[in-house]
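Duplicate of #3305? Posting structure anyway:
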């Protein structure tokens, strides 16, 4: 069902309560998501974005209930990823000649996905599309988060359609930021930033400053996932500026995997050592084999220091830790200290491997790591406790 936002804008997207993973199985979804599409009616009518392929037929049917499809004058594809462009093939079969506005990279990407030669109209930052009494102003946003990404701004109503930026994977029928549970909303917003936008933080800051430099009034931000920011819309912009600026809280995140509980016991003793020095710091422990990878990455994002532990197996690491370290390297966290730990029985390379991978991932190493043998005894656990205490001193 469509939802009227104001006299000009109608939400015509899809709320997906069933989704459990996104980007294949790369991103866990705990509260569903939405694919937000918007119909903007002035003297001309424009459709901004569509929805994911499985909902294509349903989307076009509902859109046709809302408006005679032939009365849509323009289509804007802010981003070609399939969660926003997936209904274009069905829609374009109904209105094949309508112009599609997107970036030059958007043309490449849409052609790559759908192999169709639609009536593409590539746009650049500052280009304007007249809708009659109002205009859409296009703002390219490369790498926020794909090379083709783009925002557009509606004059008169002063609304930014930001596509993925400022979004959350968060299904709600309530539609607006002020109506939903704020803890849920921000938990999903920070997870989205940590897991998707972290590699592009410098560009986030630059793009926000560039947009601020245009001095355009802003009444509302309409992203392509989650809620519409209508109440104090700058609150999420300010959060993005903080998150993009080498973000950290007073938190130490300890991530480990364990075979016979030895590395887990090390983790707990290290945590107690940290707490013995810094009772204010949030110290959080996660077993990477059992807990959600994307939630762990979010807790890495919040941390000022990250401790990673694995026993040695086959001269290497347990795969949950090896995989996580690869993800952390790709995300390119900045301003975070790190150290390794782990138990071993025979060859014991694990800690050195973790240390090297953390360094390659841009973490500042606190030390060369701590190893214990077999199942740590009281003396070894005391060594872990002292290791934690020394780390706490070095990061306080
Ligand atoms: Fe929501 Fe980059 O797609």
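Output from current build:
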């Amino acid at each position: 069902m469509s939802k009227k936002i104001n006299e000009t804008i109608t939400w015509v997207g899809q709320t997906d309560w069933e989704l459990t993973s996104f980007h294949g199985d790369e991103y866990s979804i705990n509260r569903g998501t939405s694919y937000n599409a918007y119909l903007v009616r002035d003297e001309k009518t424009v459709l901004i974005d569509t929805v994911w392929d499985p909902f294509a037929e349903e989307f076009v049917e509902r859109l046709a209930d809302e408006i005679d499809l032939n009365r849509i004058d323009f289509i804007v594809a802010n981003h070609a990823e399939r969660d926003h462009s997936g209904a274009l093939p069905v829609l374009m079969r109904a209105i094949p000649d309508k112009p599609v506005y997107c970036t030059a990279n958007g043309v490449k990407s849409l052609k790559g996905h759908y192999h169709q030669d639609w009536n593409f109209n590539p746009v650049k930052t500052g280009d304007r599309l007249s809708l009659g009494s109002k205009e859409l102003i296009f703002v390219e946003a490369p790498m926020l988060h794909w090379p083709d990404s783009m925002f557009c701004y509606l004059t008169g109503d002063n609304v930014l359609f930001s596509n993925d930026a400022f979004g959350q994977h968060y299904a709600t029928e309530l539609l607006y930021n002020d109506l939903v549970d704020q803890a849920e909303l921000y938990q999903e917003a920070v997870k989205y930033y940590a897991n998707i936008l972290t590699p592009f933080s410098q560009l986030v800051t630059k793009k926000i400053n560039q947009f601020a430099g245009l001095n355009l009034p802003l009444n509302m931000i309409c992203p392509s996932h989650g809620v519409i920011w209508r109440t104090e819309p700058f609150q999420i912009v300010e959060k993005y500026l903080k998150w993009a600026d080498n973000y950290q809280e007073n938190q130490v995140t300890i991530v480990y995997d364990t075979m016979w509980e030895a590395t887990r016991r090390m983790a707990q003793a290290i945590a107690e050592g940290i707490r013995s020095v810094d009772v204010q710091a949030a110290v959080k422990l996660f077993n990477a084999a059992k807990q959600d990878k994307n939630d762990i990455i979010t807790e890495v994002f919040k941390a000022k220091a990250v401790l990673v532990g694995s026993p040695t197996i086959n001269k290497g690491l347990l795969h949950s830790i090896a995989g996580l370290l690869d993800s952390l390297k790709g995300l390119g966290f900045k301003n975070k200290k790190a150290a390794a730990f782990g138990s071993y029985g025979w060859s014991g390379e694990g800690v050195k491997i973790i240390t090297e991978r953390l360094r390659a991932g841009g973490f500042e190493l606190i030390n060369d790591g701590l190893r214990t043998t077999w199942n740590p005894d009281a003396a070894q656990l005391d060594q872990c406790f002292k290791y934690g205490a020394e780390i706490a001193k070095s990061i306080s």
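Confirmed duplicate; merging threads. The pocket of MU-OXO-diiron is lined by residues 79, 81, 83-84, 145-146, 164, 224-225 (CB under 6 Å). The chain has twelve helices and 24 strands.
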